[in-house]
Amino acid sequence: REKLQISSLDFRLLIMAGVLVVMALAFHAATGNFLTPENLYNIAQQSAVVGIVAAAIGLVIVARQIDLSVGSVLATVGVAIAWLMYSHGWHWVSASLVGLVLCMAVYLYQGWLTAYLGVASFVVTLGGLVSFRGIAFLFASGRTQPITDPTFLLIGGGLDGKPERHRQDAPDRVPRRLDVEFKGSAGQNRGQEAQDRVGVGN
User: Fold this and answer.
1) Tens digit of each residue's pLDDT (9 = 90 or more) over 67-100
2) What are the b/e assignments for 174-190, b being 16+ CB within 10 Å?
3) Strand ranges, E, within 7-163
4) How far apart are CA 115 and CA 92, in angstroms?
5) Per residue in 126-142, pLDDT tens?
């Protein structure tokens, strides 16, 4: 009986893997770019956070509980780390450690409410879902907190999935774009001046 259960589990995993391969081939046939190294790198990078969170939430579900606040807590911790690095000049290591401690404190508190006070996890995490969104907003005062540390960007793969190209090309992109916009606006101003002179002559 145990062998049958193991074989059925392996069969289900084989089916899911086959469906994944078929989907990848279908997307590549439709777009021609799905199985390129850069796109696969981006998919792995974007799936990393979801995979880590899903592994933790799996333990919560096994315990017959639920966590509705995981997205809000993730956003709050991320904003807190960016806020410490950008607005206060913290090193990315110390800011990340503070984010880890903050995340542990949040879930120890929510777990205490559920395990010791007997409040339903649905109610506790629903409150966290709403409240931590506001906390993230208060951390940043409603302003964008960009990541500028090159090492931290390298760990995350950069803004465009190519950290080296991003670091080399980023300083050149802005001046060229500003130069184009300046030339365009200057040309428009000269055209307007010419029209005004024609109007005055008439």
Assistant:
1) 999 999 998 999 999 999 988 899 999 999 999 9
2) eeeeeeeeeeeeeeeee
3) none
4) 34
5) 999 999 988 888 888 88
